[in-house]
Amino acid sequence: MAAQPGDVYLVEGEWDLAAMVEAGFPLDRILSVPNGGREKKDDGEGKPGEPAGYDYVEQALHRGLGRHRRFIWCGDMDDTGLSLRQDMAHLLGAAKFWFVEWPEGIKDANDMLRADGPEALKELVTEGALPWPVTGLYTLAELPELPPIRAWEVPNMPAWRGKVLFAPGTMSVVTGHPGHGKTAVMAQVWADIADKNDIRVAVATFETRAKPHYRRILRTLHAGKLERDMSFEELRYSDAWINDHYLFMQHPEQTPTLNWLLETAEVAVVRHGARVVQLDPWNRLESQREPRETETEYIGRCLTAIYKFSQDMGCHVQILAHPAKMDGPRKGSPPELDDIAGSKHWDNRVDQGLVVHRPKLFDEGQRCTEAVIYHKKTRFDELGHPCKLKINFNLANGRFEDAPDQQ
Where do the DSSP E strands lie in 299-398? Predict the structure, then answer.
């Protein structure tokens, strides 16, 4: 074997080796596989599917074969040869492994020499060797064009236009202190998006009962007036709209897990065409942590599963989550995404993050209606950009509105 690193040509048998030499390849650059293919192990002594009977390869690698730049497989094209080729790619490493595809009717190097001559054999091996395919590595030209992100604007909030948008195939998280209105704000956002775009929303609401509380919110939003001021016909019309645009996910034993949620959400998407799945709040899911799994690892695993679901199902998944208790100098301040109980993954794993915060709940005994939306992050320009938006809650009609002063 040549001492200098370079290309090594692999063949099956002496006749193929001789054919390669006649075509002009150096003898000290050619290796012949001594014993042909071997069956796969499945006898309990090794992992099923691992190549067996290739000790000579391991010995050669140990003696320095691995220093060479490329291994070019010039073996047979019959079933045994193809199986052997795959084993060699596994043993020698896909990054360095190249192979020759012989023309139709040609089985090996010796056949090629006899049919077309030494020059054709050398040209095919030198110019036509193909890299062993590696899953997950592509040039830009090889990547398929993805469909553009078609985001939903938030209707009825002019100050949000171009700043906060939501899109199917993405994942968002919303946090805020308990009682600061994140459920109500996002209920309005999705109700208005559902109404304008005629889409369906699947909601897992564990702290706000679907009946009567969430229904009251949706009735009010749809009718534009408080539930107590609605006529029977308005109530009936609003309920029909809710039935057409909303699904409610409720665990029969009140012990929901993430696995249950994703299975149920898949039914909502596939059977009923839901484009949005909302979990409110995360903290009410039963934990499925493994015995030695840290909370950070568990949250990361869950968010990866949810993100994959959103992409596979082509829907938006939104999680509402409470922050950890904030004491000391930060008490009363708006939380950050990484304040959500359990993990900093809440900031880095999601496509979009929002905070709902009320600077004051009461002022001289009167209820304050001002709130601030902090759009903390967006992974894609199509979802808007980080910003701060002020809103007011209109007590007369039960809707949030842009505050006059957005500075």
Answer: 316-321, 352-357, 362-363, 366-367, 370-378, 387-394
